[in-house]
Design goal:
The structure is a homohexamer. Chain A is built from 11 helices and 7 strands. Chain A is an alpha+beta fold. In chain A, strands 3-2-1-4-5 form a 5-stranded antiparallel sheet, with no helix packed on it. In chain A, a hairpin with a 2-residue loop joins β2 (36-44) and β3. The two termini of chain A are 43 Å apart. Chains A and F meet through α5, α10 and α11 of A and α5, α10 and α11 of F.
Chain lengths: 322, 322, 322, 322, 322, 322
């Protein structure tokens, strides 16, 4: 089972499957005659595939299965209304501890290529408050282990294991390009890049299906990031000055750019404005690229997509390149 | 000087004044011939009064005076364009330590009548996390000394020494009335009432003219309140549970009701919703009452006011009562 | 049949039911084979329960039944997809005049506890225009009979028989608390509380399922309230002055607070502002409390609800109390 | 004095003036040395002209004069900063009863050309509720006398004596053209045209400078129109049906088209929608034409205007015609 | 087949049909047992009618049929859930070239009555730039042939063959009425009426079902109109002046009135404002009239419609006339 | 006169000036005694400085001077209310042809450093439609001469000679960084970078003070860019395909991102979205950097600025760096 997981988006009709999957969702429906049936949506790191229905007489097979369960499955891919589904012949729950989550969840893959530039840039920071503030998080192995697994959202841009790390690198590259045009303080800005989304470590759960935690639901991710930063800065000796802490907290709090997008203050410094621009550019262009890649957004054969939720209900156009 | 300060809003033309005042503003203007002149806006706890102009030849008298200075003044009230101004015959700076700020700043007066109901309700809280969380602030004499002086805003509703305390009592009374209609958890709600605005202690400066601090400008007052709460809760032993802390922080963060008004999350619990409703009702009705009381809002003799900034540019109507 | 109606939300599977119900809705659906079937949604004062489907061969049993019909039913509660439905063995229309609507419609129950404080406060009003204006409605037994039955909305907050009366009492309590903080004219404000929603008597139909009338659809409920008030005031001798009538009409017209919420003018007096705040606080906190109590808002086992229409699409969090 | 009033917009520098004027505004200002001075803005039916300043030593001449006073003036037009002002040599108050307001206020001139088409169309209405409803207002000589004098706004479109009548005719012509394209009920629509703005008779004062009344400030003009209509319909025998009254009231209430523009309901019938479209087209195109005609909107020599308040802050372009 | 097409909206149950139809849509659905079925939505110039389902065993009959196909059909109208459907007994594809599209697509009918007033008004234009600009389009037979077929939208107002021409005439009539009230330049305005929507010739496809072209999706219809106008004006000798071209382009670009509605500039000339008002009045009143005529907008027997998308989600009221 | 122009922002009080200046504005004001005076705002490439007033008796010296005139001036810097002004002793108009505009207008300086990267990237484009489209503009020496002088706005970001070129380079750098994160087509995107703002060449005048042209006022700059691109593409042989032209036009039209910001269509391709993000990032960060550098935005000594128009009325914070 250490082999690569079967590629769910590309398995052909008739192919046989025997592997471990994550139950991404349990769809309960009813026939017109009142009899219930269930469809499982199975996932692994490569994507997702629905099963054929478990009819009323087969419901015992899926009894007790909930979102996030892990199952060992044997089955065969069948065609159904122009789509594909997995006809399951055997299904058996797998204890969580025995599964390799990296095989089951969407992932950016190896994280080393993302750590490398970030750590290089960190090494180049001038000694001072920004470098020390960053180290308070990024020198901590526990922080790094969480950070390199956390997704950047539960179902929107970079919703993958490692997605937050990948997003951070993208924001850094874009912020660097903007900073050069207007003479911003790179060390402060880069500290903002590294710290702006740390609240997501507490706002999301990603040890199975991606979900919002109670903390994330009640507090969002922006303020938990500020709270986490204050806790870690409180342990620094000598401490940062009030002024320095406030500039860093301002970067974290204002990075959504607008009050209506959940930032309690708008960017007031050049570095905060650039961080917001770079964060938006990384998120929106990732959403656009994802939307264009996903065939389910397009009516059959169409170049113009359906209205896309993650792009403020815009439609997109594929075949953009000549 | 321990006598009551002279009543600036009601001093008659011709009356002589000899007292200490706060320089609320220094208005620098220029005559058409290019010669500069200065008007001081003097304040004490009763209100404000402008001086007659200090002409070019008298500017040495006001040299070096800035907003927030304290001055000992002798003068006489004169009429000017249907208004009043103070013709100053003597003006002398007073060192800050030697002045009694309570005589110089707008104030709610005695704070004891506001502490009494709050402390009575605190005593009635059931032992538990909400009572302990409140005690972490309200049992601290330093906290109380700041809280009973802090204004609720720098220039909007309850912009007076003690204004925050008065506002807190109002919110408590209103929240109580709402809670009764829908069965909310009063102890949790009352904790929210007491804690929702504590960030203003760090966001405002009120040891002279009221101003926003750097912390207030860069972080607002909502998040500093959450940060202060976390710091104080961190010292409790045994600690509150994560769940309990999150419910309290949610009350603080969501009390503006809308993202566009600076709350990073909207109210999701019954108590958070009630707190928001009560906070708004106290603030808006205070703004409305203040606007109706202030004659400068009304063109001479008019029942309909000018557009009022603090009421979203509404006009108000005086003579509302029959 | 004078016994309490069976509790539809709590009847257990297997229990037998024999009682009169209101047909809240007639759901017409079709099987995939093209055959139609019908599900009735039965209601009484305790809540609602769907029937099992009436299949094509049984449609004669429900022929001619429309929303709002009253039926005598015998059946048994069955389980269905984790929910409950009523398997109907006998169903017979009941003439409207023979049914006790109070047993069939959601209701606040006894209205006397709501009249008591309102009438006490009315008795305490000083003689004068506000007391007389209120009496023009509230001394009329016909008005009272309608007012104590009318719901406060057809499907939103306080959508129960007597809901308008209950809402009025809540608004009065909250308005009182706000008025105390800012010195409003209580008699005028209380008149506004009693009169602000009288247009709902004409805008809603509540002699069966709750519906909007033609008047309500074409004119809303705010302006019909103003029109009704003018008609009743026209019969007073001596009449109120123009000024007095205008202050009262302003309270009625402005109580939604914003033009975009259907008030043709925004509140311009202190009493109008307080009425708006209290009306909103009663409505929104009732919506929030209702949403938290309704298990159908929550995915199974979840603490976070689905998006709630009546709360501007917010999600709410249950388990708010510690 | 029965001669035509002097044309204030075109009087040349050096011309002598001896006539009666309305005091449109009294501008009180102050020299830099603290001395007050006053400029009067004089008006007659042709337009307005400011006086030269009345300096401190001349203030007795204008003592007691307020907005809306009527004065007999002798003076001479002088140049001032590229503009013109009236140097007053004699000024004497005139009792209100002795002045001919038609000579003093901006006016559409003869009203007969506006009554003619309206009365012709009224005569062509089929007997029935709409014709009778219209007659309840338009057969009343008092109503007609007011209606032919009332402006359509106090300072926006058609702010002239007779402006409401002129606007009504314009709306009728435009509504007719729209109605033809989509088969609306012309008699009902025409009744809406005639009745939609009758509330302005109570919302505005126009027996001197144009002002909003207390009724207009507290209730707007839309609802007073509905109230007036109900009062007049209440006297009809036999009465209109509820349905008929509601359709007419809906036309009055919805004519602003949007809740945010002060209509408590949006147009729900074809006739209401057309009335709204025609009303807007008349008002906005009048505002645009007025803005283009007024040289004070344009920086000297410029084709592009300043931002125009009455056009939602748009700039306009003169020289639009080739 | 040159006979009038059968009236799909009014065919009675039991009537037999034998004719050619356009396949407006192919609805693919699935039974609960997983078996697919298909419903065709057939259209001709009179309206639309769905077929009865083609079940799994009949799918070969509709294999290969796509939106926009043309088919020869024999069948009989059946009742189904209170609606009607066509039970198809024979279905055969028809090559596109052999069908008469005018019989198959919704159409305004004869276009001559629309050309007549437009051409008469064109003849009355004074010689000059506006007349020449119009001629550059309207003297070209190819342009006329396209213009008299193009719909004014694909699924909203005037979505019929010839709809754009009909809409143009309506805008002209309404613009004329508005222009008279405020003295606009009719020749310039009429040129704007004729040219404002010419971009729709490139933005829509109407040689079958109505669809947006790639040009329409990527550029909208406003800018393609401006580009088309510039191309045609480039061929005029002598050319129009820059000023003249800019006034015409401004009319085209600003006719949606607001940036948020897709106009890159707001109307700045009187003619542009009138064009916008007339365009809106024609479109919105057509939408309202269409919505009132369409029984599918109304729950059975109801006077109040469902929320209508094309009217900004308003509900409408039928039985508006007395 | 070929020497560097005197540095207006830094000239000390008492320094003598003899040079040529551009009249940026002519401020006409009046003393309280009614006497007019004039202040000139003089500009050169280094910045601006106001003159001392020209009093009534000196007005002949400035007679006939208008915005945009060029003058030769002798004078001395004087202090005035804490600011500086130029006391002019001699002032003489200079014919436009004889002045070196580069010395008189704000400028980015040498343009070669901006051309270099753009031309290098152009050389690296693969042969094909995007390279050819770009060459249609950028191989034309006239186009280049205009492009390297045009400002990016008249008074907002990059309002300097060469500002458009500088902005273009910034957009290119930022777009490159974004494109790398999501795999966009760089050649197409770079073509969009180079072409998106070409309409500004026609929308602005920059042969003196910066102003909007008639074309810019009536059509904006987005659509003139599309029109210019079509004209230039029309001359290419062989021509681009319709599809290729539409993708390029889409980039130009959608680059403002939102309809409300003047783009008639929103970005629908990945390249269009990135172009919009990079354009915004360059503009907003330039505005922020400019605002922080300009001392006139800050009340004396303050770290928090006044509300800044070009940043959506935000306040900014200087001393952002630690």
């Amino acid at each position: 089972m250490s082999a690569a997981p079967p590629s769910l988006p590309t398995l052909g009709v008739g192919e046989r499957v025997q592997d471990t999957f994550l139950v991404w969702d349990v769809e309960q429906r009813t026939q017109a005659d009142g009899n219930p049936f269930v469809i499982l949506h199975l996932a692994n790191a490569t994507g997702r595939l629905p099963t054929a229905p478990f009819w009323a007489t087969e419901l015992t097979k899926v009894q007790g299965l909930a979102k996030g369960a892990i199952v060992s499955v044997i089955g065969e891919v069948a065609e159904y209304r122009g789509g594909r589904q997995l006809k399951v012949t055997s299904l058996r729950p797998v204890p969580r501890g025995m599964a390799d989550l990296a095989r089951l969840l969407p992932s950016v893959g190896e994280v080393e290529p993302y750590w490398r530039p970030l750590d290089k840039w960190r090494a180049q920071m001038a000694p001072g408050p920004w470098k020390r503030a960053v180290a308070a998080c990024y020198d901590d192995p526990d922080f790094r282990r969480d950070y390199e697994r956390c997704p950047a959202s539960t179902s929107n841009h970079h919703a993958q294991l490692g997605g937050l790390l990948k997003h951070t690198v993208e924001v850094a590259y874009i912020a660097q390009a903007i900073a050069r045009t207007c003479g911003a303080d790179w060390d402060l800005l880069f500290a903002g890049v590294l710290l702006h989304d740390i609240g997501k470590l507490e706002a999301y759960r990603y040890d199975g299906i991606f979900e919002t935690t109670e903390r994330g639901a009640l507090l969002g991710h922006v303020v938990p990031g500020a709270l986490m930063l204050e806790r870690r800065l409180a342990e620094l000796a000598p401490p940062l000055t009030d002024h320095e802490r406030q500039l860093l907290l301002h970067l974290v709090l204002s990075h959504h750019g607008q009050l209506a997008y959940g930032s309690p203050v708008r960017p007031m410094t050049l570095e905060a404005e650039i961080l917001h621009q770079a964060d938006t550019a990384s998120a929106v262009s990732a959403n656009m690229a994802d939307a264009l890649r996903d065939p389910s957004n397009f009516p059959e054969g169409a170049a113009q997509s359906r209205s896309i939720w993650s792009l403020e209900h815009r439609k997109v156009w594929r075949g953009g390149g000549a």
